[in-house]
Amino acid sequence: MSISAASQAISQSARLFQQGLVTETIATCQTALKDDPLSCALHNNLLFAMAHSPQVSPEELFAAHRHFGEVFESTLRPQWPAHSNGRDPERVLRVGFLSADFNAHAVTSFILPLLFNLKKSPRLSLYAYYNNSLQDHGTAYLKDCLPHWNQVETLSDEALAQKIQDDGIDILIDLSGHTAGNRLLALARKPAPIQASWIGYPGTTGLRAVDYYITDAHFTPPAMDSQFTEALARVPAALPFLPASDAPQVNPLPALENGYFTFGSFNRTGKINQQVVALWSRLMLAVPGSRILLAGIQSEASLQRLRDWFVAAGITPERLLFQGHLDVVQYLALHGKVDMCLDTFPYAGGTTTLHALWMGVPQLTLAGQTVAGRGSAAFLHQMKLDAFVASDADEFIQKGVYIANNLQFLAALRGSMRELMKQSPLNQYPLLAAGLEGALRTMWQRWCTGLPAAAFEIEYC
Predict the structure, then answer these.
(1) Overall pTM surpassing 0.90 (yes/no)
(2) So what CATH class is 3-77?
(3) Left (φ > 0), alpha (ψ -120 to 50) or beta: where does 292 sit?
């Protein structure tokens, strides 16, 4: 495949995915990869789309990630450097963070509160490797926490790997996975003796060069260890959350005034497949008069496709409310019109779930069998809101109907949600920073004694 043809396939698959056409995205990538099997971008687009498809099993998804690793890493393994980092288990550690999202991005809202605490540790020296030229207020906050700042967007994979090695990084943490702007081909060269993946991508990298995946027991129960090439390093909470400082105040439950119940979804269109709409429609039919607000609709074609799916499932158009893209404050304020959010599957909510909870709106979720399918469930378990986590479709309906018919319960929960979040592990930043630092030290001590990476868990302090 020519360079222009490969670029066209990459762009086409990205456009299809943005429109919510996941099956078509997968087919486009698979066809193009037959002619250009070494296109990293096509592999990335394929893997991310596969994580959104209800037709792809966890085993198939893992196998595809393993294939990526074999394609791009197998020729590099014989060239991995013999790391000369001093094997003192208690010395100051040089920890590098690699990302294309060190800006006003969801990743920043997760890592910033931990970095603010980690930068105070006398046992850590923090480095940033930023693969993006974009500079904004999020970048400025991160620069204050990561004193050794490096712009690497112009470096080749080989040059970036050499830079990391020359800096003497002990533990390199990748925050992109298979998302846009990743530098997995630099990690595949094993520039640091210990490498880990965290936050940016809900799943394995597929690379043997990456030793650990940082997670928690709610995101990845023990049965999911087999879905990773990495060993799982479980911390008290894998994703802390920093709420928006300009978030509006929580309003009273709208159903009390409206006289009808409003479900909502703020997830990306690509997460909403026809099976999701069918399940949501079953719940709406079981709650007479209910409506659903779907926000973040990116095109008229996406809107029409969703409307057709709902109508086919028995929901008349007047029960459907659509909203396009909004700025952050408007988006948060829109939660004031929603009584309860409904989650997507197999790729569940993440940042959107946390924003909804902060705005007093719980999310009913169907816990999945992959990391991508367990985001909402993990957050709800951390907040002791297990009543909103279903294990199958029938339980999703049963719980949804029960909750929708208990408005006083929802109203009281809405008013107390922010306090619940503040008291949950999600907002215990010093505790979580200590847990992460403990995990990094455990990884390092194993390497110092010549032990291979192995799964472990850091308990609450």
Answers:
(1) yes
(2) mainly alpha
(3) beta
